[in-house]
Amino acid sequence: MVTAHVSQTPRAGRFRWRVVDIVIAAVLGVAAGVIFWAWGLAWTPLSNLLVVIAPLSGLLAGVWLFAGVIGGLVVRKPGAAVFTEIVAATVEMAIGSQFGFSNLIWGLAQGLGAEVILLLFLYRKWGVAVAVLAGAASGLVCGLMDTTFTDSAAWSAAWKSLYTACTIVSGAVLGGLLSWVAVRALARTGALNRFAAGRSREAI
């Protein structure tokens, strides 16, 4: 009985949130929320440049998708992606986003998209491939929601498909790949030494 208890403790502890996990996830979420808000200001003029082929605006969506991925990569606990993305969405809304309360709904959904990928890998793999997949999944959710619950719902099936493909690509690159690069850069500075992300040398 004692042996069984000892063998199970490390696994249980690996998934248990510490105070420092909550703090760093919140800090990442707040920082991301400010970036989200600034990107919201740039969204309209940038998307207007793509008005001829409107679905290409989906390529800009990835900036709103990195919070969940980076939170998951750093904290490495169940729920980290969702928590960080929701905090970011809340901060964006509180500052004064043009999207209002829908920020929270999209934040929750996009965070869940990334979270599902991390869950599929049982919160054990944290390399670039997982980060890219998590960003792509978040982009897929973003594309589906945008083309279902916004003005884009009036588009043709072809345009909806193109838009969603663009959000997936944007999520994979801006939300996933760049998040992985950012975490690696932070790890090299020693800022993440209290986290597995700061000690890991996993490359793929």
UniProtKB/TrEMBL annotation:
This is Energy-coupling factor transport system substrate-specific component. InterPro entries: ABC_thiamin-permease_prd (IPR017195). The chain crosses the membrane at residues 20-43, 49-75, 82-99, 105-123, 130-150, 162-183. The keyword ATP-binding does not apply. The keyword Transmembrane helix applies. Keywords: Membrane, Transmembrane, Transmembrane helix. Pfam families: ABC_cobalt (PF09819).
